[in-house]
Design a protein that fits this description.
The chain has 195 residues and is mainly alpha-helical. It contains five helices and four strands. A hairpin with a 5-residue loop joins strand 1 and strand 2.
Length: 195
């Protein structure tokens, strides 16, 4: 997505006319970019996605719930692992008193319990991954709705994503609408909770 955005910007820059209209309507050449003094050029703003994600209260609440579920799962799996380890130690201690058939049966039961614990872990991990995927989709939908409405309200052509490691290396701070988008996201969340 970021690479496509960088390519779009590069294409726009490459296609830009290298002329500028002066007050008398004549064109002047610039260094490869079209500067339109008539005000009909592209209108661009940007948001910092990392700031939106970290400041969006609804997302933080859902993320905290997922982290709580993950910690609970880790604790539960730790207990199950401890029980299996204790059962294995008991079996080792009793091995000399068991017949070969009894030992084999006990080992098989432990292996089945271990397999069940692994299957449970995998199922719970997949469940949490699915919930995280839903959270990400919800976050994208919420952000897209607010960003789209802001683009229309401000009559912008593009709203770009600017952040660490992104394709945009530098941007005019006056074009940053991150806080406005974040305020709208949090206001929408507050209204949703009030219902």
């Amino acid at each position: 997505m970021r690479i496509a955005l960088a390519l779009l910007i590069a294409a726009l820059a490459g296609c830009a006319k290298s002329e500028q209209k002066t007050d008398n309507g004549s064109n002047t050449t610039t260094s490869g970019y079209s500067i339109d003094s008539t005000g009909t050029g592209l209108k661009v703003a940007y948001v910092n996605i990392d700031t939106l994600v970290s400041g969006y209260e609804y997302h933080k609440g859902l993320r905290a719930q997922l982290e709580t579920q993950l910690k609970a799962l880790e604790t539960e799996l730790g207990r199950k692992g401890q029980v299996l380890q204790e059962n294995y130690q008991v079996l080792e201690q009793q091995a000399s008193r068991l017949s070969e058939a009894e030992l084999r049966q006990a080992q098989q039961e432990l292996m089945i319990k271990q397999q069940q614990a692994m299957e449970y872990r995998d199922a719970q991990t997949q469940k949490l991954a699915a919930e995280e995927e839903k959270l990400t989709a919800l976050l994208k939908d919420d952000m897209k709705a607010v960003i789209d409405s802001m683009r229309v309200a401000k009559k912008l052509d593009f709203i770009l994503s600017y952040g660490e490691g992104g394709p945009i290396l530098s941007a005019e701070p006056g074009l940053d609408i991150t806080q406005e988008v974040l305020d709208q996201l949090n206001a929408a969340n507050k209204a949703r909770r009030a219902k």
